[in-house]
Sequence to fold (450 residues):
Amino acid sequence: MIITQEYDVLIIGAGTSGAHLAKAVASKGWSVLVIEKLPREKTGTKYDIFHIEEREFERLGIPRPQKGEPGWAFEFEKNYNADPRTLYPKLQTNPIVGLHMHEYTLLLCDLAEKAGAEIMFETAFEAFTSDSYGKISGVTAVKNGETLSIKAKIVVDCSGIGAAARTSLPDTCVIDNKPLGDDDMFYVILRYVKIKNAKDYLDGSTFWAYYKSWIAPCADPEGAIIGIGACHSYEYAEKIYEEMEKTVPLPEYELVKIEKGRTPYTKSPYSLVTDNFIVSGDAGCLTKSVNGEGVTSSIYMLNIAADCIDRAFKIGDTSKDTLWKINTEYNRTQGAEFAFLRALLVGVVNAADFNEFEYVFKENIINDELLNALNGSAVPAKVLIKAAANFVKGIATKSIRLSTVKAAAGAFKNAVDISSHYKKFPDSPEDFNEWRKTADNIYSKIGKIQ
Ligand SMILES: Cc1cc2nc3c(=O)[nH]c(=O)nc-3n(C[C@H](O)[C@H](O)[C@H](O)COP(=O)(O)OP(=O)(O)OC[C@H]3O[C@@H](n4cnc5c(N)ncnc54)[C@H](O)[C@@H]3O)c2cc1C
Fold:
């Protein structure tokens, strides 16, 4: 066994989450080692294109590649939301930047290294090591068949959806250590296509909530990416895709390539910290409730974590009591917003049928105000009250079933309950068990997306 020097922070995984945190912590002057199981040239190659909303770069302090620079792929700003037959599409304008995942991840890795972090590629987390009190004191990792023992004051799991370290925590830990099941994630299939007729070239993206499907521009202006995300399995996602093709008027296309990947679609563990340990990124299920995207939502949490890590080192205490501030700051803000939206969407999407989806688009119940609110991950009460009034009209005209409205109303109540509860996330671990029981109770009513 090779014993390395001791680091302040050891991060597992050099995806966008791990690389961003490495830069943020190293910039504050602390020593950081990232271990990444893949070689540098394969890191960030799980799929090609991902999107970031233009406004997020400045808000989160992340690099914004310009046209022609590494990472940049394309930009667009028209986003349509549509009913299952695309008869009543709603346009929203929201500038989006399409990026190459591999190049952008390496850009973040370069910035981390420039800030002083070390990245050890082809090095896989194996197990935790602990101190004489049983608290995490580092990890063992395997590089080129040799075992390394790496000591660190704080270990951070940014190892993606497999959550290699989180799932190795003991059952007694305050962090949920369960791996994700098939209904806790979206199986995403991306078809990169060439559009046959110039009249069909895209000027923006379209999202069909009924099918959890979309078409969006890609780096080739004559091409597109047709995506679908569904729980359970890729086979199930393909089945929904077949259904979708029957009603959605997709442009004629030639298939160029298919990419597949999984993204968490479930609540994040209530606690993201324990003694000397933090979980984030896909490993902490920090993906958006609206679409399962997770790059920027994780970075939001990691910025909170970087400040808290800095404070913890300054006072020389990396226990869960000190790191707990990450939980409170995260859960009371983005955590509460995501919990609200997930509860609402799960209830509504599971309940509404094809005709009801079409009706809400036709009658403008799905309108700019509601879509803007959902995009911002916070829905003001007045917007929802207006939507509720429109649902009542739907019942009166027999366009919406009473059972669907009841389900939507129940989902709204659950959403309010869970987000209010997140906003009361306890200041310290002492009151956590009580808080968790109530949260579990509300989640048992919310259910999961079908
Ligand atoms: C098809 C698809 C499209 C998506 N599109 C978008 C989008 O447009 N916008 C968006 O914001 N999000 C999108 N997402 C979600 C987004 O990709 C993830 O939320 C994000 O990449 C998570 O980053 P991460 O760093 O937490 O995890 P990852 O990117 O998965 O990085 C984890 C890293 O840890 C490494 N690792 C794993 N195990 C170990 C180990 N034992 N030891 C050492 N290293 C290990 C892995 O090799 C990997 O490099 C999409 C997801 C999919 C599947």
